[in-house]
Amino acid sequence: MMALDRKVYAVLSRLVRYPVAGFEEASEEWMEQVRQLCPSAGTALDGFRAFVVQSTPEQLEEIYTRTFDNSQSAALDLGWHLFGESYNRGALLVRMRELLREHNLDEGGELPDHLSNVLQVLAACNADTSRQLALDVVEPAVKKICVSLASGQNPYESVLDAVLEVINLHVQETNGCH
Predict the structure, then answer these.
(1) Is the pTM of this model over 0.90?
(2) Who is most buried in 35, 72, 87, 126, counting CB within 10 A?
(3) What pLDDT is attached to residue 175?
(4) How far apart are CA 178 and CA 175, in angstroms?
């Protein structure tokens, strides 16, 4: 089996950002990159690809806002899902900000524990830190978000499924018990 290229995390981070102008065209390239880097995650994106192709920019913005910004149970701020507004979330925010700065990554106007930022860190940091963040933060929080979207009707479910697929392969590859 080919080793997982953690660059796939950086590509996935783009798909969970607010869809600005040009998102439709760029996302097609990003989804192809995911398919090249991790074929099973690329396959998981098929539902999202179909949605993007048939949607206007306004529809993409609306579904993103309705899915993530207007729903506390699906917010992409991972620390909130794990810790609520406790001290532990504050500690995670500080740690994520440190990691973002250490790797010269831009927060992009989101909180440091936003899924897009955490995925960028997973791609950039060392293997041990990446594995621990994937296991301790991303996987449990994304699973909670998936439960809130479990209607089968939301196109972002396939993006989150792709994230979980990459994490699963990453953890298996690094000999983690799962």
Answers:
(1) yes
(2) 35
(3) 60
(4) 9
